[in-house]
Amino acid sequence: MKEQKRIILLALFVSILLMLVKFVAFFITSSNAILTDAAESIVNVLASAFAFYSIYLSAQPRDLNHPYGHGKVEFFSMFVEGILILIAGILIIFKSAYNLFYPAPVDDLFDGTLIIAATGIINFGLGYYLIDQSKRLNSVTLFADGKHLQTDAYSSAGLVAGLLIIYFTNNYYLDSILSVVMGIYIIYNGYKLVRRSVGGLMDESDLEKVKEIVAILNENRRPSWIDIHNLRTQSYGHELHIDCHVTLPYYFELNKVHDEISELDTLINQKGAVRTEFFIHTDPCLPQCCHYCRMPKCPVRNEVQLKDITWTVENVTRNHKHYQ
Question: Is residue 324 part of a domain?
């Protein structure tokens, strides 16, 4: 968590600096489109500040009131960031629509364009760094902040292109039109962040993580793991919680069952990219399992193995054994 705090503090510092630079560009030019970009930078600062707090909170140890930890706050952080982006986009569209009817003069446009281009390059590089680190540290907060900064960089790139067109054509009416288009783009990206955050808060299954787990299980499958079903995932910040049912031979004594489940837990945590906590319910095998059971020299087998079932996302997430 210390590394995440260091990264988000860097993002916060850079966001404050770039916000000030963009407002300088606005005061130089009086461009409505540049004001749009500067206003979005205020959102960047607020979002980075809230992201820092959410990372601090998610690092707190589990307690009686939060037995799963505080990691869910990272999804709330993403939600707040998405809402702030949506609000910024809506305000930008209203301001730009007003200036379509009541245009304001624009000065020193080329100098302002150069400043915006420089801030866009910095934002894109920082956003790329945050997204890269979010994958390594499994942090949705860093991912959201990185996506936000890259969105800002893309809008800056579109803004630079539009400002250059305005500069060379002297058609300053395009300034407000360009700002409206940028506002729509910003709203779309805010919606995507809100959608992802709501999915996390509602424990929407992360199919990519499930696919990774299923692949590991297939590659390292033990004959005694007859089937795995009712597998469900929940994300809590940088941790993943999984509960599932594992069918084992019914004649295994309790210590043997414990060893088998411990091996499965260790396997996923060693080979998976995310720290995972398992809650595993064990089921005894039934005669109906014999036709796909891999157990060699099984003392109670009543039918030869007729087929081999490969685990998939579809059959491990269903709430019944594979023979049903």
Answer: no
N-terminal to C-terminal alpha carbon distance within the chain: 44
What does the DSSP assignment read for 178-194? HHHHHHHHHHHHHHHHH
**159 and 42 in a common domain:** yes
* 34-78 tens-digit pLDDT: 777 787 777 778 777 777 777 777 667 777 777 677 667 777 777
- 300 and 187: one domain? no
HEC-encoded secondary structure of 56-108: HHHCCCCCCCCCCCCCCHHHHHHHHHHHHHHHHHHHHHHHHHHHHHCCCCCCC
Which residues sit opposite 284 in a β-bridge?
Answer: 248
Residues 57 and 141: their CA atoms lie apart, in Å, by 12
Q: Are residues 22 and 124 in the same domain?
A: yes
pLDDT at 1 over 90: no
The per-residue pLDDT for range 161-210, each reduced to its tens digit, is: 877 887 788 877 777 777 788 778 878 878 887 887 887 777 777 778 88
Which of 179, 201, 223 corresponds to the end of one domain? 201
Mean pLDDT for 92-119 is: 78
Spatial contact of 52 and 8, defined as CB atoms under 8 Å apart: yes
| CA dist., res. 237 & res. 58, Å (int) | 7
Same domain, 197 and 251: no
As a three-state string, the secondary structure of 107-135 is CCHHHHHHHHHHHHHHHHHHHHHHHHHHH
Is 19 strand, coil or helix?
Answer: helix
58, 237 in Cβ contact below 8 A? yes
Residues 52, 125 within the same domain: yes
Please check whether residue 323 lies inside any domain of the structure.
no
CATH number at residue 286: 3.30.70.1350
